[in-house]
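Hey Z.,

So I finally got round to the 1,3-dihydroxyacetonephosphate thing we talked about over coffee. Here's the setup:
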Amino acid sequence: MRTPIIAGNWKMNKTPAEAKALAEALIPLVQDAPCEVVLGTPAVNFAAVSEAIRGTNIKLGAQNMHWQPSGAYTGELSADMLLAAGCTYVILGHSERRQYFAETDEAVNRKALAAVKAGLIPIICVGETLSQREEGYTDTLVAYQTLTALTGLTAGQVAQVVVAYEPVWAIGTGEVATDEQANETVGVIRAAILGQYGDAAADAVRIQYGGSMNPANAGGLMRQPEIDGGLIGGASLKAEDFAKVVHFDK
Ligand code: 13P
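And the result:
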């Protein structure tokens, strides 16, 4: 069975002092979590959060990285830097990075390869816009985004990564995919992985849903057989709300 994984994506929120306070508030609330718990914080907070969560069941995540190991890439961070700062996970290809920073499927692929090579676990985000869904391209698009991002990884490596299905129209809008819609599209992603990498990888790979997931809808989404977790934006910024999502089984 796949271990569920609930990850907060704090996006561009929280100073180091605020991040420390949020992490410390979460520790007692999620210590008996039925899943893996990840905090995807801005890089400026890595030191404060990794210090706060040391020895707990919470893991640290980054929100982006560069694919090169080092070099003249002003403003960028490498996989080794994230690892050294205590990260276990790195969110890659979030739709906000694709939309505002022109990140392509090929760039996401380079980043995924570099992350896996360095020993980070990528959380690879895929998802369709509203017009793409309305025009009937959802399945083709998410399968293409997923397989492009994973190109060059072995089946064994694919088994270890996390994919996040985040319909763009559900991000930060309060509009959430129905349980059935989310389950169906996550199933499409798993089927694409099955076709390319085989049974073992498809059975092992964890696929999250993300997009306006909150304490009220987490239970229904998490009961879907294909959905292995959540990538949580707004609701991850308050300890009580995030803890309720983490305890989706209550
Ligand atoms: P919201 O939960 O705020 O809709 O954001 C989802 C998201 O983008 C997580 O990566």
